[in-house]
Amino acid sequence: MKNIFFVILISVLFLSCGKKEEKEEFVEEHPKVVEPETKTDTVHKITPQTTDEKKFTDESSRTNITISPLEAGDYIGKSVNVKGYVADVHQTEKVAYLNFVEKYPDNPFTAVIFANRFSEFGDINKYLNKTVEVGGRVTTYKNKPQIILENKSQIKIVK
Predict the structure, then answer these.
(1) What is the largest CA-CA distance in the chain?
(2) How far apart, in whole angstroms, are the C-alpha atoms of residue 156 and residue 146?
(3) Cα–Cα dist 1/26, whole Å
(4) Is the dihedral of CA 119, 143, 129, 90 positive or negative?
(5) Per residue in 81-104, pLDDT tens?
(6) Do residues 8 and 15 touch, judged by C-beta distance below 8 A?
(7) Which domains does the chain have, with CATH numbers?
(8) Residue 29 gets which letter from DSSP?
(9) 3-state class of 114 per DSSP?
(10) How far apart are the first and last CA of the chain?
(11) Which pLDDT band holds residue 5 (cuts at 50, 70, 90)?
């Protein structure tokens, strides 16, 4: 009986050695080109971009979805606009953080600017104590939602 159990155990271990661990992976869906309904309609050709290339170059490229900083965690992987109060601005040599609603570490959402983009944004303290809208893909860092800003057109002061 022990021999049968041992053979089964070895068989299971041997068969499972070649299996790769399945990981849930986010796959970006590329926008589709919409065909015109009539000959007078125009077709706007959309070319897929990598995440690094994706920038909001003007107001028309912003998404139609505007959410609060408290809702951002429900939109991980989606491109949205987050509108809220910047309660805290913190800048180091490598990165700047615009913390929404509350000061760090109690902030529910952060807009992030890396050092290679500092010159594009100028003095980020101009966003402190203002209501701003940021647009981009919501990601997480240490289980907290964020949008990485790469282009000045991704942020605007609302009031």
Answers:
(1) 79
(2) 16
(3) 46
(4) negative
(5) 999 999 999 999 999 999 999 999
(6) no
(7) 59-157 (2.40.50.140)
(8) P
(9) strand
(10) 77
(11) low
Give percent above pLDDT 90 in the chain. Answer: 59
Q: Where are the strands (E) in the chain, listed by range?
A: 66-67, 79-91, 95-100, 109-114, 131-141, 144-148, 155-157
Residue 64 is predicted with a pLDDT of: 81
Angstrom distance (rounded) from CA 101 to CA 108:
7
Separation in Å, CA 101 to CA 6, 88, 105, 128, 129: 59, 8, 11, 11, 10
Query: For tokens 């003007």, what's the residue?
Result: 58
User: 3-state class of 86 per DSSP?
Assistant: strand
pLDDT digits (tens, 9 = 90+) for 103-148: 999 999 999 999 999 999 999 999 999 999 999 999 999 999 999 9
d(CA 61, CA 109) in angstroms, rounded, equals 22
